[in-house]
Amino acid sequence: MAVTNKDRISPWVWVALAVLFLLALAVIFVLPRVVEQYELPLTARVEQTAAPVPANAPTRPAVTNVSPFEEAQLARQRREAQDILAELLRKQSELEMLGVEQWAPDRFASALATAQEGDTFYRNGEFDAATQAYQQGDQSLDVLLEQVDDEFERAMEAGNAALAAVDSGTAREQFTLAATLDPTSEEADQGLRRAETLDEVRGLLDQGIALQQQGDLTGAQNLFEQAIALDPLHQEADSLLADNQQRQTDARFTAIMSEGFAHLENDEADAAIAAFERALQVRPGSEQAAEAIRQTREELTLDSIAQLRSRAETAEENEQWQQAIDLYTQALALDANLVFATEGKDYSERRLQLDVLLQTNLDEPLRLSDPAAHQEAIDVYRIASELATDLRADGVDPGERLEAQIEQTGRLLDMMQEQHPVTLVSDNATAVTIYQIGELGTFQQTSVMLRPGRYVAVGTRPGYRDVRQEFVVGFGQAPGTVTVNIQCNEQVAGT
pLDDT higher for 300 or 468? Predict the structure, then answer.
């Protein structure tokens, strides 16, 4: 079968295969010798006539004839050493960025010294020993990296302690270290900011304390507020501000209480209570203000009670019993346990009742024509007379009104005992009856003796409409002047 141009292998393929074969031979036999002539990274080895060797480093026997396999093994060991070294260098760089020389300089230097021993082994071609040295140094750096969090906490504690001791330099140094150890820490940044303002805050607080001691609480307040604006977390500033505010509150409270007591001295109880209530608003729950209010109200109540008692006693003296009752009632509203008010009200009520009964009989004397009312008047007169006698015996004036009522009632009762002639005129056909007296029968004219009072005469006659006649006897009428005409004159239809 003939081979066409299309199926023929290109000469360039054969050339490429030949080049790759030569490169493979170079890697196996030539590259190890070339690598031995250079340090990483690609730094030419410095030829030394007598390179120093550590005392504990084993002496490498001279290799005069190294097989390709041995060369390959050395190359592998070199790569392992280089890999460990690369990781060690990375951790070294990381620790340097974390400021290791500030918090573990000796241990860091020791780790690097161990790594440098590995360099010596490396230069002598003792790659396994170099790897071990690099690993030891790398492990030492790992220990340091594991301590970063602890070192951060120690730096923060030292920074906060320096803030408390007002040591701005140390605080700044420690918080800077903490920020280096943890660049994302807001606490470290916050501590550093506080350290930057520490001296200024301290100055403001000292000035505020001085003003406070001089009594300028407002000025001190302004300085303390400025300090807190610079460092909101400053505990002493918060404490001083709270203390100053309390001092201002106490000063306002004392001033208002003094105002209240001044009102008391001027007998201005209402104004004093108003002041004490304002003081209670300044200091809620103050026992002093509450007690002042209570005592003032008690004094005010006692004054009011005393005034009411005086007015009630005056009303009693003037025999104004209803007014006295009202005043005693007001006093009892202030204090229900007042004995004088209870007794005074009871006495005034009884006197008012007696006064009303006496005056009713005097104002309506005709009601005494009723036997029951007449007997009641006699009883009231007796009670009033006995009361007046007892009052005089106790050295108390019974009062003009009571004495006048007793006298007038006595005359009224005497008058009620008098007999007055009354003439009755009729027609001998009308039967006449006086309700309070009885039936008188028919007559043309008759006369009866009656006591003062109101009477009713009734006339009846068969076939005629009844008649009724009221008349009064006595009470200013001249004896023998009362004549009553009573007769039935209107005939009833149909009879």
Answer: 468
pLDDT for the residue 41: 35
Do 92 and 177 belong to one domain? Answer: yes
The alpha carbon dihedral of 354, 359, 362, 365 has a sign of negative
Same domain, 430 and 336: no
Residue 440 belongs to domain with CATH number: 2.60.40.1120
My answer on whether 401 and 457 are in the same domain is no
Domain boundary, last residue among 400, 416, 432: 416
Give the structural domain span for 152.
71-202
Q: Does residue 284 sit within a domain?
A: no
Is the CB of residue 374 less than 8 Å from the CB of residue 416? yes
Whether the CB-CB separation of 424 and 432 falls below 8 Å is answered with yes
Question: Are 392 and 459 members of one domain?
Answer: no
The pLDDT confidence band at residue 488, using thresholds 50, 70 and 90, is very high
Number of domains in the chain: 3
The verdict on residue 313 lying in a domain is: no
Q: Give, in order, the Cα–Cα distances in Å from 175 to each of 100, 101, 182, 492.
A: 15, 16, 10, 134
- Look-up: residue for tokens 């550093």? 192
Q: Which tens digits make up the pLDDT trace of 435-447?
A: 888 999 999 999 9
* CA separation for the pair 392, 350 (Å, rounded): 18
Closest among 221, 213, 173, 219 to 196, alpha carbons compared = 173
**Considering the entire predicted model, what is its pTM?**
0.52
Is the confidence at residue 5, as pLDDT, over 80? no
Half-sphere exposure of 494 (CA within 13 A, CB side): 0
Instruction: Please give the backbone phi and psi of residue 347, each rounded to the nearest 5 degrees, phi first.
Output: -65, -45
User: Is the pLDDT at 36 greater than 70, yes or no?
Assistant: no
**Co-location of 78 and 187 in the same domain:** yes
Sign of the four-CA dihedral 325, 326, 327, 329: positive
Residue 242 has pLDDT above 90, yes or no: yes
The least confident of 104-118, 375-389, 414-428, 443-457 is 104-118
**Residue 288 located in a structural domain:** no
- Using alpha carbons, list the distances in angstroms from residue 370 to 165, 213, 450, 477, 487: 109, 94, 13, 19, 26
Q: Which of 178, 202, 226 is the last residue of a domain?
A: 202
